[in-house]
Amino acid sequence: MCFDCNSSSLSRRSLLKFAGIGGVAAMTACFGRTMPAFASNAPALLPDEALAKLQEGNKKFVADAEACAANISKRRQDVAKSQAPWAIVLTCSDSRVVPELVFGGVTLGELFVARNAGNVVDTDVLGTIEYGTEHLHAPLIVVMGHKRCGAVSAACEVVSKGTKLDGSIGKMIQPILPVALAETDRGDNFVDKTVHANAFNGAERILTESAIVSRLVEEGKVKIVPAYYDLDTGVVDFLHKV
User: What is the CATH number of domain 47-63+84-238?
Assistant: First the structure.
C-alpha cells in the first residue's frame, strides 16, 4: 500500500518498474554551472513527523509488499519544476536496498536519496545532504546500513585477514576501516556489528563535519537518525538519533 491511496491493484513485480524513478537519481543528477532555483516552500513535516511517516511506510512494506504507484503521471507534472522532499536517505548502492519501496512505496518528489557502496559520507554525499536540508528544507536525514553489506564485509576482511583490494574499491572502503578496527568482536557478528557502527559513524560525521546541518539540528529543524535494514525481513530498525 502507498501513503496516498488504498489500492493494491499493482503487484510487487509491477511496482519494481517504478523503482528507479524516485530519489535514487538525486545523488547523480548534475546541478549544472548554476544552481537551480531553490524550493521556496517550508517543509510540510516536522522531523519527528517525517520519521513517523518512514516508520509507518516500512510497516506497510513488511506487512504487505504489494504497493501502488498512484497517479504517477499527474505527480510527475506536479513536481517537474520544483521539489520539496520530506526525508533524505543515505544508503548503500546494493540493488536489494530500494528506499522508495522499503518505506512503503513512496512516489516522485518525496525522498532525496544519496547512495554509494557502504553508505559512506564523502564530500559528494555531504554536499548533497546540505543541499537537501538547507535549500530543499528536508527535515530528516536517515543513514541506513543493511544486512550483509558487501562494502562493510570487504572492510572487515581487510581488518581481520589483511586482504588487499585493488583499484578504487580499496580507496572507497577506507572510511569504513576505522569503524571495523574499533569493533572488538571479530566473530560471526563482526560484519553485522560493523554495519550498525558504520551507520552511527556516518550520522555523527554529518553532524560534526557540516556546519550547515549542525546549525539546522541545533535549531530543531533537522534530525539525523541512523538505521539498519534487514534484507530477510524487510524491517528497518531506526536506531537512536545522533
Answer: 3.40.1050.10
- Residue the block writes with cell 564530500: 123
Q: Kindly report, residue by residue over 52-65, the tens digit of the pLDDT.
A: 999 998 898 888 76
Query: Whole-angstrom Cα distance, residue 121 to residue 201?
Result: 9
pLDDT of residue 65: 67
156 is in an annotated binding site: no
Q: What is the dihedral of CA 225, 149, 234, 132, to 10 degrees?
A: 40
Is 92 marked as binding a ligand? yes
**Which pLDDT tens digit goes with each residue over 84-101?**
999 999 999 999 999 999
Q: Find out whether 68 is annotated in a ligand binding site.
A: no
Domain ranges, ordered by start, for the chain: 47-63+84-238
